[in-house]
Amino acid sequence: MNQPAAPTLSTTAVVSLSFGVASWVVLPVIAAIIAIVAGHMARGEIRRSHGAINGDGLALAGLILGYVNILLGVAIILALVFGVFAIAGLAAISGT
Predict the structure, then answer these.
(1) pTM of the predicted model, to two decimals?
(2) What's the mean pLDDT in 23-32?
(3) CA–CA separation, 70 vs 55, rounded Å?
(4) 12 burial class (0-12, 13-18, 19+ CB within 10 angstroms)?
């Protein structure tokens, strides 16, 4: 009896998750971008394999970690920029 081969784990999904975690620990922007790109590549590869490759959860986790890291970084930068403008505006109003 021939049994079907067990699904293999997507290497790209593992890369996505690894860089997603690294984006929070070591390389915030670069690793987040790599995690996002690798996550999308892995999910496409997994869908096209029709069950021969698994790891969609790993790819999704990498995508989420990467996107949240990027969004949080943008939010912090916007908060800093608006904070500086708010302080400058208050200083201009008070005449200092």
Answers:
(1) 0.85
(2) 94
(3) 23
(4) buried
